[in-house]
Amino acid sequence: MLDYIDKNRDRFLNELLDLLRIPSVSADSKFKNDMLKAAEYVRDRILEAGADRAEIYETAGHPVVYGEKLIDPALPTVLIYGHYDVQPADPYELWDSPPFEPVIKNERIYARGSCDDKGQFYMHIKALETMLATNSLTCNVKIMIEGEEEIGSSNLGTFVKEYQEMLKCDTILISDTSIIANDVPSIETGLRGLTYVEVEVIGANRDLHSGVYGGGVANPINVLCEMIASLKDKNGHITIPGFYDKVEELTPDQRTALNAAPFDLEEYKNELQIGDVLGEEGYTTIERTSVRPTLDVNGIWGGYIGEGAKTVLPSKANAKISMRLVPNQNDDEICELFTKHFESIAPASVKVKVVPHHGGLPYVTPTDSVEYKAAEMAMEESFGKKPIPTRGGGSIPIVALFERELGCKSILMGFGLDIDNLHSPNESYGIFNYYKGIETIPLFFKHYAELKK
Ligand code: BES
Ligand code: MN
Ligand code: MN
Protein backbone atom coordinates (compact mmCIF):
# COMPACT_ATOMS: atom_id res chain seq x y z
CA MET A 1 0.00 0.00 0.00
CA LEU A 2 2.84 2.40 0.84
CA ASP A 3 4.23 1.75 -2.61
CA TYR A 4 0.88 2.53 -4.25
CA ILE A 5 0.54 5.76 -2.24
CA ASP A 6 4.05 6.76 -3.23
CA LYS A 7 3.49 6.09 -6.93
CA ASN A 8 0.30 8.15 -6.91
CA ARG A 9 1.56 10.88 -4.62
CA ASP A 10 1.20 13.81 -6.99
CA ARG A 11 -2.21 12.83 -8.30
CA PHE A 12 -3.50 12.35 -4.72
CA LEU A 13 -2.47 15.92 -3.96
CA ASN A 14 -3.70 17.46 -7.21
CA GLU A 15 -7.15 15.96 -6.79
CA LEU A 16 -7.42 17.58 -3.37
CA LEU A 17 -6.29 20.92 -4.82
CA ASP A 18 -9.09 20.71 -7.42
CA LEU A 19 -11.61 20.13 -4.64
CA LEU A 20 -10.20 23.11 -2.72
CA ARG A 21 -10.79 25.32 -5.79
CA ILE A 22 -14.57 24.91 -5.38
CA PRO A 23 -15.82 27.56 -2.91
CA SER A 24 -18.35 25.36 -1.10
CA VAL A 25 -19.37 27.80 1.63
CA SER A 26 -22.57 26.43 3.17
CA ALA A 27 -23.49 29.57 5.12
CA ASP A 28 -23.72 31.88 2.11
CA SER A 29 -26.46 31.28 -0.49
CA LYS A 30 -24.38 32.86 -3.24
CA PHE A 31 -22.28 29.68 -3.24
CA LYS A 32 -25.28 27.34 -3.60
CA ASN A 33 -24.17 26.18 -7.04
CA ASP A 34 -20.63 25.55 -5.84
CA MET A 35 -22.04 23.36 -3.10
CA LEU A 36 -23.56 21.12 -5.76
CA LYS A 37 -20.32 21.19 -7.78
CA ALA A 38 -18.34 20.07 -4.73
CA ALA A 39 -20.86 17.30 -4.03
CA GLU A 40 -20.59 16.07 -7.63
CA TYR A 41 -16.81 16.16 -7.47
CA VAL A 42 -16.83 14.07 -4.28
CA ARG A 43 -19.34 11.58 -5.72
CA ASP A 44 -17.24 11.13 -8.88
CA ARG A 45 -14.02 10.59 -6.93
CA ILE A 46 -15.72 8.00 -4.65
CA LEU A 47 -16.85 6.11 -7.77
CA GLU A 48 -13.38 6.35 -9.31
CA ALA A 49 -11.85 4.99 -6.12
CA GLY A 50 -13.79 1.80 -6.79
CA ALA A 51 -17.04 2.09 -4.80
CA ASP A 52 -20.00 -0.04 -5.92
CA ARG A 53 -22.12 3.09 -5.99
CA ALA A 54 -22.06 6.74 -4.97
CA GLU A 55 -24.95 9.15 -5.16
CA ILE A 56 -26.08 12.63 -4.31
CA TYR A 57 -29.05 12.78 -1.95
CA GLU A 58 -31.07 15.97 -1.84
CA THR A 59 -32.08 17.32 1.57
CA ALA A 60 -34.03 20.40 2.64
CA GLY A 61 -30.62 22.12 2.66
CA HIS A 62 -27.38 21.19 0.91
CA PRO A 63 -27.04 17.67 -0.55
CA VAL A 64 -25.38 14.68 1.10
CA VAL A 65 -22.98 12.44 -0.82
CA TYR A 66 -23.21 8.76 0.02
CA GLY A 67 -21.28 5.84 -1.41
CA GLU A 68 -20.46 2.28 -0.45
CA LYS A 69 -18.23 -0.70 -1.13
CA LEU A 70 -19.75 -3.80 0.42
CA ILE A 71 -17.44 -6.77 -0.01
CA ASP A 72 -18.72 -9.41 2.41
CA PRO A 73 -21.67 -9.36 4.83
CA ALA A 74 -19.60 -11.43 7.27
CA LEU A 75 -17.07 -8.59 7.64
CA PRO A 76 -17.57 -5.54 9.87
CA THR A 77 -18.85 -2.31 8.30
CA VAL A 78 -17.19 1.06 8.86
CA LEU A 79 -19.06 4.29 8.12
CA ILE A 80 -16.81 7.19 7.14
CA TYR A 81 -18.21 10.66 7.86
CA GLY A 82 -16.88 14.03 6.72
CA HIS A 83 -18.09 17.38 5.40
CA TYR A 84 -17.44 19.05 2.05
CA ASP A 85 -18.76 22.43 3.18
CA VAL A 86 -16.35 25.06 4.50
CA GLN A 87 -16.55 28.18 6.62
CA PRO A 88 -16.82 31.57 4.89
CA ALA A 89 -13.37 32.87 3.91
CA ASP A 90 -13.98 36.41 5.22
CA PRO A 91 -12.11 38.61 5.87
CA TYR A 92 -10.49 38.07 2.46
CA GLU A 93 -7.95 40.89 2.89
CA LEU A 94 -6.22 38.99 5.70
CA TRP A 95 -5.30 36.07 3.42
CA ASP A 96 -1.78 35.98 1.99
CA SER A 97 -3.13 34.15 -1.06
CA PRO A 98 -6.72 33.80 -2.30
CA PRO A 99 -8.64 31.26 -0.16
CA PHE A 100 -9.93 29.24 -3.11
CA GLU A 101 -6.69 29.21 -5.11
CA PRO A 102 -4.66 26.69 -3.13
CA VAL A 103 -0.90 27.22 -2.93
CA ILE A 104 1.80 25.06 -1.39
CA LYS A 105 4.27 26.84 0.85
CA ASN A 106 6.55 25.46 3.58
CA GLU A 107 5.21 21.95 3.04
CA ARG A 108 1.66 23.13 3.72
CA ILE A 109 -1.45 23.48 1.55
CA TYR A 110 -3.00 26.94 2.02
CA ALA A 111 -6.72 27.19 1.21
CA ARG A 112 -10.08 27.43 2.96
CA GLY A 113 -11.09 23.87 3.85
CA SER A 114 -7.59 22.44 3.39
CA CYS A 115 -7.77 20.91 6.87
CA ASP A 116 -11.44 21.45 7.81
CA ASP A 117 -12.55 19.16 6.35
CA LYS A 118 -11.75 18.62 2.67
CA GLY A 119 -8.12 17.64 3.20
CA GLN A 120 -9.14 15.29 5.98
CA PHE A 121 -12.11 13.49 4.43
CA TYR A 122 -10.35 13.25 1.05
CA MET A 123 -7.67 11.12 2.77
CA HIS A 124 -10.40 8.50 3.26
CA ILE A 125 -11.27 8.42 -0.44
CA LYS A 126 -7.60 7.97 -1.31
CA ALA A 127 -7.20 5.33 1.41
CA LEU A 128 -10.19 3.48 -0.05
CA GLU A 129 -8.67 3.67 -3.53
CA THR A 130 -5.36 2.38 -2.14
CA MET A 131 -6.98 -0.54 -0.30
CA LEU A 132 -9.00 -1.55 -3.37
CA ALA A 133 -6.13 -1.18 -5.84
CA THR A 134 -3.88 -3.34 -3.68
CA ASN A 135 -6.54 -5.88 -2.73
CA SER A 136 -6.22 -5.03 0.94
CA LEU A 137 -9.71 -3.95 2.00
CA THR A 138 -10.71 -5.84 5.16
CA CYS A 139 -14.11 -4.27 5.97
CA ASN A 140 -17.24 -3.08 4.22
CA VAL A 141 -17.08 0.66 3.70
CA LYS A 142 -19.88 3.20 3.72
CA ILE A 143 -19.01 6.83 3.19
CA MET A 144 -21.22 9.83 3.90
CA ILE A 145 -19.93 13.34 3.21
CA GLU A 146 -22.37 16.09 4.13
CA GLY A 147 -22.64 19.77 3.20
CA GLU A 148 -24.02 21.43 6.31
CA GLU A 149 -21.61 20.67 9.15
CA GLU A 150 -20.41 24.26 9.43
CA ILE A 151 -24.00 25.47 9.79
CA GLY A 152 -25.06 22.92 12.38
CA SER A 153 -26.02 19.81 10.34
CA SER A 154 -29.68 20.67 10.89
CA ASN A 155 -30.98 18.55 7.98
CA LEU A 156 -28.65 15.61 8.48
CA GLY A 157 -30.62 14.28 11.44
CA THR A 158 -33.64 13.74 9.19
CA PHE A 159 -31.41 12.09 6.58
CA VAL A 160 -29.87 9.72 9.11
CA LYS A 161 -33.33 8.75 10.44
CA GLU A 162 -34.70 8.22 6.94
CA TYR A 163 -31.73 6.13 5.76
CA GLN A 164 -31.01 4.35 9.02
CA GLU A 165 -30.95 0.94 7.31
CA MET A 166 -28.60 2.08 4.53
CA LEU A 167 -26.22 3.65 7.08
CA LYS A 168 -26.19 0.65 9.41
CA CYS A 169 -22.62 -0.01 10.52
CA ASP A 170 -20.42 -1.34 13.30
CA THR A 171 -18.50 1.86 13.91
CA ILE A 172 -18.00 5.36 12.50
CA LEU A 173 -14.62 6.77 11.57
CA ILE A 174 -14.16 10.54 11.31
CA SER A 175 -11.13 12.68 10.48
CA ASP A 176 -12.18 16.20 11.42
CA THR A 177 -10.15 16.86 14.59
CA SER A 178 -6.53 17.47 15.56
CA ILE A 179 -3.46 15.76 16.97
CA ILE A 180 -1.16 17.40 19.54
CA ALA A 181 1.86 17.57 17.20
CA ASN A 182 3.28 15.63 14.28
CA ASP A 183 5.56 13.78 16.70
CA VAL A 184 2.89 13.55 19.44
CA PRO A 185 -0.06 11.65 17.94
CA SER A 186 -3.34 11.77 19.83
CA ILE A 187 -6.98 10.77 19.48
CA GLU A 188 -9.84 12.97 20.63
CA THR A 189 -12.20 11.07 22.90
CA GLY A 190 -14.75 13.81 23.31
CA LEU A 191 -16.35 16.83 21.67
CA ARG A 192 -18.15 19.74 23.25
CA GLY A 193 -21.77 20.49 22.49
CA LEU A 194 -23.04 23.88 21.40
CA THR A 195 -25.89 26.32 21.86
CA TYR A 196 -25.85 29.35 19.59
CA VAL A 197 -28.18 32.34 19.93
CA GLU A 198 -28.59 35.79 18.48
CA VAL A 199 -29.80 38.60 20.75
CA GLU A 200 -31.27 41.99 20.03
CA VAL A 201 -31.68 44.85 22.49
CA ILE A 202 -34.16 47.49 21.40
CA GLY A 203 -34.41 50.96 22.89
CA ALA A 204 -36.44 53.87 21.51
CA ASN A 205 -38.53 53.49 18.34
CA ARG A 206 -35.88 55.31 16.23
CA ASP A 207 -32.31 56.52 16.30
CA LEU A 208 -32.03 59.68 18.39
CA HIS A 209 -29.79 62.75 18.59
CA SER A 210 -27.36 61.86 21.39
CA GLY A 211 -27.32 65.44 22.62
CA VAL A 212 -31.07 65.96 22.69
CA TYR A 213 -31.91 62.57 24.25
CA GLY A 214 -28.52 61.40 25.57
CA GLY A 215 -28.54 60.75 29.33
CA GLY A 216 -32.30 60.43 29.37
CA VAL A 217 -33.08 57.21 27.51
CA ALA A 218 -31.34 53.87 27.30
CA ASN A 219 -28.57 53.36 24.77
CA PRO A 220 -29.12 49.73 23.65
CA ILE A 221 -25.40 49.27 22.95
CA ASN A 222 -24.42 50.33 26.46
CA VAL A 223 -27.17 48.14 27.91
CA LEU A 224 -26.17 45.12 25.78
CA CYS A 225 -22.53 45.49 26.89
CA GLU A 226 -23.57 45.59 30.55
CA MET A 227 -25.83 42.59 30.12
CA ILE A 228 -23.10 40.60 28.40
CA ALA A 229 -20.52 41.60 31.01
CA SER A 230 -22.80 40.32 33.75
CA LEU A 231 -22.99 36.85 32.19
CA LYS A 232 -19.67 35.99 33.86
CA ASP A 233 -18.43 36.82 37.37
CA LYS A 234 -14.89 37.90 38.23
CA ASN A 235 -13.78 34.25 38.43
CA GLY A 236 -14.93 33.54 34.91
CA HIS A 237 -17.94 31.53 36.08
CA ILE A 238 -21.05 31.82 33.97
CA THR A 239 -23.83 33.43 36.02
CA ILE A 240 -26.88 31.96 34.26
CA PRO A 241 -28.87 30.19 37.02
CA GLY A 242 -28.78 26.41 36.53
CA PHE A 243 -26.06 26.56 33.86
CA TYR A 244 -23.69 24.22 35.74
CA ASP A 245 -26.34 21.99 37.34
CA LYS A 246 -25.71 19.01 35.06
CA VAL A 247 -22.04 19.58 34.27
CA GLU A 248 -20.06 16.42 34.81
CA GLU A 249 -17.12 17.11 37.14
CA LEU A 250 -14.02 15.02 36.47
CA THR A 251 -12.58 12.84 39.22
CA PRO A 252 -9.10 13.83 40.49
CA ASP A 253 -7.64 10.87 38.56
CA GLN A 254 -9.35 11.93 35.34
CA ARG A 255 -8.05 15.47 35.81
CA THR A 256 -4.52 14.22 36.36
CA ALA A 257 -4.70 12.07 33.22
CA LEU A 258 -6.12 14.94 31.16
CA ASN A 259 -3.39 17.32 32.32
CA ALA A 260 -0.64 14.77 31.69
CA ALA A 261 -0.83 15.51 27.94
CA PRO A 262 2.13 17.56 26.76
CA PHE A 263 1.27 21.25 27.02
CA ASP A 264 3.62 24.22 27.37
CA LEU A 265 1.84 27.34 28.62
CA GLU A 266 4.70 29.66 27.62
CA GLU A 267 4.77 28.27 24.10
CA TYR A 268 0.97 28.57 23.91
CA LYS A 269 1.14 32.25 24.89
CA ASN A 270 4.06 32.97 22.57
CA GLU A 271 2.40 31.35 19.61
CA LEU A 272 -0.74 33.46 20.15
CA GLN A 273 1.28 36.56 21.14
CA ILE A 274 -0.73 37.11 24.31
CA GLY A 275 0.56 38.35 27.67
CA ASP A 276 -1.52 35.85 29.60
CA VAL A 277 -4.31 33.33 29.28
CA LEU A 278 -7.78 34.04 30.67
CA GLY A 279 -10.46 31.66 31.83
CA GLU A 280 -12.39 30.02 34.59
CA GLU A 281 -10.65 30.15 37.98
CA GLY A 282 -9.51 26.80 39.32
CA TYR A 283 -9.05 25.06 35.98
CA THR A 284 -6.04 24.62 33.70
CA THR A 285 -5.97 25.80 30.10
CA ILE A 286 -6.37 22.19 28.91
CA GLU A 287 -9.48 21.83 31.11
CA ARG A 288 -10.90 25.23 30.19
CA THR A 289 -10.70 24.35 26.51
CA SER A 290 -12.09 20.82 26.68
CA VAL A 291 -14.10 19.68 29.71
CA ARG A 292 -15.48 23.03 30.91
CA PRO A 293 -18.40 24.87 29.31
CA THR A 294 -17.93 28.37 27.88
CA LEU A 295 -19.89 31.44 26.87
CA ASP A 296 -18.52 33.69 24.14
CA VAL A 297 -19.69 36.61 22.06
CA ASN A 298 -18.93 35.77 18.42
CA GLY A 299 -20.05 39.07 16.95
CA ILE A 300 -21.52 42.35 18.16
CA TRP A 301 -22.87 45.28 16.21
CA GLY A 302 -25.02 48.38 16.30
CA GLY A 303 -24.89 52.13 15.86
CA TYR A 304 -22.57 54.08 13.63
CA ILE A 305 -19.41 52.39 12.37
CA GLY A 306 -18.72 54.47 9.24
CA GLU A 307 -15.95 57.02 8.79
CA GLY A 308 -15.69 59.92 11.20
CA ALA A 309 -18.01 60.53 14.11
CA LYS A 310 -21.78 60.58 14.29
CA THR A 311 -23.52 61.61 17.48
CA VAL A 312 -26.37 59.17 17.74
CA LEU A 313 -28.26 57.01 20.21
CA PRO A 314 -28.94 53.91 18.13
CA SER A 315 -32.29 52.24 18.57
CA LYS A 316 -30.89 48.70 18.45
CA ALA A 317 -27.88 46.58 19.35
CA ASN A 318 -27.19 42.95 18.46
CA ALA A 319 -24.84 40.14 19.35
CA LYS A 320 -24.24 36.51 18.44
CA ILE A 321 -23.47 34.42 21.49
CA SER A 322 -22.35 30.79 21.67
CA MET A 323 -21.99 28.41 24.57
CA ARG A 324 -19.82 25.28 24.38
CA LEU A 325 -21.34 22.48 26.40
CA VAL A 326 -19.88 19.47 28.18
CA PRO A 327 -21.27 16.04 29.07
CA ASN A 328 -24.75 15.94 30.51
CA GLN A 329 -25.59 19.49 29.44
CA ASN A 330 -28.37 19.61 26.87
CA ASP A 331 -28.33 22.26 24.15
CA ASP A 332 -32.09 22.93 24.19
CA GLU A 333 -32.18 23.17 27.96
CA ILE A 334 -29.21 25.55 28.09
CA CYS A 335 -30.77 27.65 25.35
CA GLU A 336 -33.91 27.97 27.46
CA LEU A 337 -31.93 28.86 30.60
CA PHE A 338 -30.01 31.49 28.65
CA THR A 339 -33.16 33.00 27.16
CA LYS A 340 -34.99 33.21 30.49
CA HIS A 341 -31.99 34.73 32.21
CA PHE A 342 -31.20 37.21 29.44
CA GLU A 343 -34.78 38.43 29.41
CA SER A 344 -34.79 38.73 33.19
CA ILE A 345 -31.69 40.93 33.38
CA ALA A 346 -32.93 43.46 30.82
CA PRO A 347 -33.84 46.83 32.36
CA ALA A 348 -37.37 48.09 31.72
CA SER A 349 -35.90 50.78 29.46
CA VAL A 350 -35.26 48.23 26.66
CA LYS A 351 -36.91 45.22 25.03
CA VAL A 352 -34.88 42.11 24.23
CA LYS A 353 -35.27 39.33 21.68
CA VAL A 354 -33.39 36.03 21.77
CA VAL A 355 -33.40 33.93 18.61
CA PRO A 356 -31.91 30.43 18.84
CA HIS A 357 -29.63 29.23 16.03
CA HIS A 358 -28.23 25.72 15.82
CA GLY A 359 -27.02 23.49 18.59
CA GLY A 360 -25.65 20.06 19.30
CA LEU A 361 -24.98 17.68 22.14
CA PRO A 362 -21.57 16.95 23.65
CA TYR A 363 -20.00 13.55 23.05
CA VAL A 364 -17.54 11.18 24.71
CA THR A 365 -16.16 7.89 23.51
CA PRO A 366 -14.64 5.18 25.71
CA THR A 367 -10.99 4.17 25.25
CA ASP A 368 -11.57 0.49 25.95
CA SER A 369 -13.64 -0.26 22.84
CA VAL A 370 -12.48 -2.37 19.89
CA GLU A 371 -12.68 0.63 17.56
CA TYR A 372 -10.61 2.85 19.84
CA LYS A 373 -8.00 0.08 20.14
CA ALA A 374 -7.92 -0.26 16.35
CA ALA A 375 -7.33 3.48 15.93
CA GLU A 376 -4.67 3.41 18.63
CA MET A 377 -2.86 0.50 16.95
CA ALA A 378 -3.11 2.13 13.52
CA MET A 379 -1.60 5.40 14.74
CA GLU A 380 1.06 3.65 16.74
CA GLU A 381 2.07 1.72 13.63
CA SER A 382 2.20 4.75 11.33
CA PHE A 383 3.60 7.36 13.76
CA GLY A 384 5.83 4.97 15.71
CA LYS A 385 4.31 6.24 18.96
CA LYS A 386 1.21 5.33 20.91
CA PRO A 387 -1.39 8.12 20.57
CA ILE A 388 -2.49 10.01 23.69
CA PRO A 389 -6.24 10.25 24.35
CA THR A 390 -7.34 13.91 24.58
CA ARG A 391 -10.66 15.70 24.96
CA GLY A 392 -11.48 18.06 22.11
CA GLY A 393 -12.97 21.50 22.55
CA GLY A 394 -14.70 21.73 19.17
CA SER A 395 -18.09 20.38 18.17
CA ILE A 396 -19.35 18.03 15.47
CA PRO A 397 -23.09 18.09 16.10
CA ILE A 398 -23.98 14.90 14.24
CA VAL A 399 -21.73 12.62 16.31
CA ALA A 400 -24.09 12.44 19.33
CA LEU A 401 -27.00 11.94 16.96
CA PHE A 402 -25.18 9.03 15.24
CA GLU A 403 -24.94 7.37 18.61
CA ARG A 404 -28.66 7.78 19.22
CA GLU A 405 -29.89 6.88 15.73
CA LEU A 406 -27.35 4.31 14.56
CA GLY A 407 -26.44 2.98 17.99
CA CYS A 408 -22.71 3.21 17.48
CA LYS A 409 -19.75 5.18 18.66
CA SER A 410 -17.56 7.38 16.48
CA ILE A 411 -13.78 7.37 16.45
CA LEU A 412 -12.28 10.82 16.01
CA MET A 413 -9.06 9.97 14.23
CA GLY A 414 -8.13 13.43 12.99
CA PHE A 415 -4.78 14.60 11.63
CA GLY A 416 -4.97 18.41 11.87
CA LEU A 417 -2.88 20.68 14.08
CA ASP A 418 -3.86 23.69 16.19
CA ILE A 419 -1.71 25.87 13.92
CA ASP A 420 -3.84 25.00 10.86
CA ASN A 421 -5.96 28.16 11.30
CA LEU A 422 -9.35 26.49 11.00
CA HIS A 423 -12.14 29.02 10.39
CA SER A 424 -9.50 31.73 10.19
CA PRO A 425 -7.57 33.42 7.35
CA ASN A 426 -4.66 31.42 5.90
CA GLU A 427 -6.07 28.02 6.81
CA SER A 428 -3.58 25.32 5.92
CA TYR A 429 -2.95 21.59 6.17
CA GLY A 430 0.44 19.91 6.36
CA ILE A 431 1.44 17.75 3.41
CA PHE A 432 2.92 15.39 6.02
CA ASN A 433 -0.50 15.15 7.71
CA TYR A 434 -2.32 14.48 4.44
CA TYR A 435 -0.16 11.51 3.49
CA LYS A 436 0.10 10.30 7.10
CA GLY A 437 -3.69 10.11 7.16
CA ILE A 438 -3.81 8.16 3.89
CA GLU A 439 -1.28 5.71 5.36
CA THR A 440 -2.97 5.35 8.74
CA ILE A 441 -6.59 4.82 7.63
CA PRO A 442 -5.96 1.41 5.95
CA LEU A 443 -4.19 0.32 9.15
CA PHE A 444 -7.36 1.16 11.09
CA PHE A 445 -9.36 -1.13 8.79
CA LYS A 446 -6.77 -3.88 9.14
CA HIS A 447 -6.69 -3.80 12.95
CA TYR A 448 -10.42 -3.29 13.29
CA ALA A 449 -11.21 -6.36 11.16
CA GLU A 450 -8.69 -8.43 13.12
CA LEU A 451 -9.96 -7.33 16.51
CA LYS A 452 -13.58 -7.96 15.48
CA LYS A 453 -12.88 -11.59 14.48
N1 BES B 1 -13.87 20.18 12.52
C1 BES B 1 -14.52 21.14 13.32
C2 BES B 1 -14.61 20.76 14.77
C3 BES B 1 -13.29 20.54 15.48
C4 BES B 1 -12.16 21.24 15.13
C5 BES B 1 -13.21 19.61 16.47
C6 BES B 1 -10.96 21.01 15.76
C7 BES B 1 -12.05 19.40 17.13
C8 BES B 1 -10.89 20.09 16.77
C9 BES B 1 -15.92 21.38 12.78
O1 BES B 1 -15.92 21.57 11.39
C10 BES B 1 -16.46 22.65 13.35
O2 BES B 1 -15.90 23.68 13.11
N2 BES B 1 -17.57 22.57 14.06
C11 BES B 1 -18.26 23.71 14.52
C12 BES B 1 -19.65 23.27 14.82
C13 BES B 1 -20.73 24.22 14.57
C14 BES B 1 -20.63 25.08 13.38
C15 BES B 1 -22.08 23.62 14.75
C16 BES B 1 -17.59 24.29 15.74
O3 BES B 1 -16.98 23.56 16.53
O4 BES B 1 -17.67 25.50 15.89
MN1 MN C 1 -14.82 20.15 10.45
MN1 MN D 1 -15.27 23.68 11.04
UniProtKB/TrEMBL annotation:
Pfam families associated with the record: M20_dimer, Peptidase_M20
Q: Which InterPro entries match?
A: Cyt/Met_Dipeptidase, Peptidase_M20, Peptidase_M20_dimer
Describe the location of the Peptidase M20 dimerisation domain by residue ranges. Answer: 190-347
GO molecular-function terms, A-Z: metal ion binding; peptidase activity
- GO BP, sorted A to Z: proteolysis
Gene3D superfamilies tied to this protein: 3.30.70.360, Zn peptidases
Q: What keywords were assigned to this record? A: Hydrolase, Metal-binding, Protease
CDD domains documented for this protein: M20_dipept_like
Annotated protein name in UniProt: Dipeptidase
Write down the species.
Dyadobacter flavalbus
